[in-house]
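Narrative of activities, Objective 1.

The group set out to show that a structural description can be obtained from nothing but a protein's sequence at a throughput compatible with the screening campaign. Below is one input-output pair from the validation batch, recorded exactly as produced.
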Amino acid sequence: MIVVRAPMRLSFVGGGTDLPGFYRQYPGRVISTTIDKFVYIAINRTPLIDKVSARYSFSETVDHPSKLQHTRIRAALTDMGINKGIEIGSFASLPAETGLGSSSSFTVALVKGLNTFLGKKLDKRDAAEAASRLEIDVLGEPIGKQDQYAAAFGGFNVFQFNADGSVDVRPMLLDYKKSLGLEDHLLLFFTGITRAASSVLSQQKTNINSKLQTLKEMSDSVPEFCNLLSRGDFLGMGNMLHDGWLRKKSLTSVASNPLIDNLYDAGVSAGAWGGKVAGAGGGGCVMFLAPTDKKQAVRKAVLAIAKERNLLDFKEIPIKFTQAGAEVMFNGDQHTTLA
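Output recorded for this entry:
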């Protein structure tokens, strides 16, 4: 048995500039951190069972991976030539499609686990690139690389996406007080509305050239946000989140909707400095930065909207920042070398 986990992420500014249609014209930049919410992949070798099994929200057992319904597992096994004698299960701290990068966290954990299964070791960059290749090149998803790199590297990082496809990774080294202070000012709520990021990013992708100046401003905002974070200027960061959210909404008509706008406006009216919808938008999680003495008022305001709109799955998600990226938690497979 091999068990791998990969963290989910929370991005702040620059999201959307990691699409190749943009960074081939101008450097894309994103600042994000990983959080204490994880995707787990368990892989079991079954030499006496000449089948392929996948256990997730459904259960599948097939004669060949090409017959699997789960697109990522099917693509990964087929691409790596693993055709039989394997069982794969997945578990997660949160539902899929929450805007916290869980799909790419799944893929990073999967490729790291399968390479361990084959006796191969992937470092952080290898894992990020392997997951990006699987999702973008093999599956043809209209996404960027920020989520794969965040899950593979872990911690607070600034990612720069270059015209040649390379990615520069610059860790943000925060002292304990600033990191804890940012956690204390953050509020994260799951709206109960799930959506596939590809459905939002497909429209954004077609709008890149017409929105080029806005995307440049989003990319250029990352160094400024880093400076504010280094100084512990949470008010300034909240204002930048608000400006960034307005820019993101201008990129595509499906980044927000009246319900999300109502939730966001309620939080800001109750005292939050600013915030955003996590991920591509259209649903998932809403994040706020707020003074600590206004957090309860923000909670009350957004919960009132959720109750009014009958969002049964709406809930606050407590988070802590994490440092570790994807890692092999357990390797009891005698046929492999620990990755």
